[in-house]
């Protein structure tokens, strides 16, 4: 552990290296790349939520100007293209182990590029047209005639899970693919039977989508001379996508190169390979031309991986004094038409008890197929959903049983002296000071002045509500990471496999390296995103990047310093234990001579070294780390509502976040602000809506999908807390997802507080002005009728 080390760069708000490039139009996003002779691809997408493909007629399309080819699922099968090996079941040592019904293996279904049996959701790609121009490809796609046999469909999770629901996969007797139980059922039932109070809450955390700034795009090229495939495509992990694409094409991964530089937004939507990427590479080989694909915004709304969509029912058993005795939970996750990721269900399952010392719990975790776009790990995967459930449940318990909601929380929080704390379903929290976080948030948000602000709002005819939530989340992610540390003439280069999407990796990784090796921050270069250079790495997801990168760079630094000592010892003909290293300089004991990294690199390049020291001043270090960390925090907000219209305004928002070691507070604060906006967006505006009568998505543009904007957000008050994790050398937890984890819960807590004078209706997200106004009007109507 490097807890006591004095850092010169780590912990400082260093401006981001990336920003100059990005704000001057020099970014390298997917759509920035073009190649001579490139042609364009467009997809033919299903207009039906569920339909058998009877026949596909390409003839009219092939006669269109500029159209070069039309490809279908039958063509994919004929050429032996495999399914995308998404591997959706989390498999690290500490993930919750999900199983199918009857303790069977989970059926995930074939994630084929183009199905040839049936369409399973509106927007599913069924054919690809390639033409000389994008307009010609789109026109050609309109001319592809598909004969459908329309089938019954289901999009609602609970309906899909019922016996007799329309089946998506004939291989299963029902649409339920996961049905797992965790905890101690007998002890839970006993605790509930003995409880003085039982409070229950059922809610649906609806479906949203990532809406990245740059819709997904790819440029694919096959070189017949080298027999290599190259694709430019933004992703959450270039190495992973290389492996997946190679598996689809049935080729050696060495023959695939993925170039993923600046990623125009991710939030989980780009962590898994899209079908268009492999299709474009395949088409490039068949046509002998580079193939480019770019989704427009409406197409992205139809076909991007989506997030959330969890039905949760939670019950809490309490004694007379408000002590939490036990918890029962049932979570039903909607994976969509194909299973891409079960991370949301698994990661949420491990945190159902939140920050609270609930000694006994039982959870039933299920996942179900439906005729909707597949869901994927979306920012803070699974954790906002379970935080939302338990925090709203505690507010409800306080209201119904007459407890103060803050004291009820305080009475039941896990204490620092209980750390490491094993919760009732087996998750081991590493560290945290939950009550102190509460106190910090209440002070920073000026809870003491709330009553005066509420009274002032009342004078203006408005209602001011106060929301509060604690949160704990987990960060696990892919366990393996690799770093190459290379000392060049005037730079130290770090080659690493995590893939940023705006998190400032080029800056924060350089800060870590600078302090570990004692070199100026400006002389560190971070290389990523090109799989011909980056040979391994887990990518960016689950808040893993800083923790894994800092750890593997720290381990690699030890190796590099050892190699540096050995090289200098050989050159100076002294024992390696006579060579010291400090502050970026090598020094031979009992000598005034010092050698810098860059001087030593020059000496090493001159040759004359034994075989084990050759290859320059460079090392490669691999690390595997399974142990999760548990970032945590507390948030508070105030929302003002006009009861005459339901219009609302967020007046204050406060967040306190324990991220472990904070490498760069400037970046972490920025990540916190963005994460809060994302969580608030779901609470107040965002929702992927499907028409219940036709199965058609009703959110296909920004005209009908609400987004958080600068004028709808207040100025945030945020504080970073650093309770170091004992699980890694720097004590890092994670700093990119906490703001999202607590936001839906705290916003709805404030809405509930506003409506406490109107019969305590339980609104579902998004809490739109129309929903608020209707709730108020319904209460007034009931009062008149009474």
How is the topology of this model organized?
Layout: H1 18-23, E1 39-45, E2 51-57, H2 59-62, E3 67-72, H3 73-78, E4 118-119, E5 125-131, H4 134-142, E6 145-150, H5 157-161, E7 176-183, H6 185-194, E8 197-209, E9 217-223, E10 228-232, H7 238-249, E11 256-259, H8 275-287, E12 291-294, H9 297-303, E13 306-318, E14 324-336, H10 343-349, E15 360-369, H11 383-401, H12 405-412, E16 421-422, E17 428-429, H13 434-444, H14 450-459, E18 463-472, E19 480-487, E20 492-496, H15 505-517, E21 524-527, H16 545-572, E22 579-582, E23 585-588, E24 594-596, H17 597-605, E25 618-624, E26 632-641, E27 648-658, H18 665-684, E28 717-721, H19 738-754, H20 769-785
Parallel strand pairs: 1-12, 10-11, 14-15, 20-21, 27-28
Antiparallel strand pairs: 1-5, 2-4, 2-6, 3-5, 7-15, 8-13, 9-10, 9-12, 13-14, 16-17, 18-26, 19-20, 19-25, 22-23, 23-24, 26-27
Helix pairs in contact: 10-11, 11-19, 15-16, 16-17, 18-19
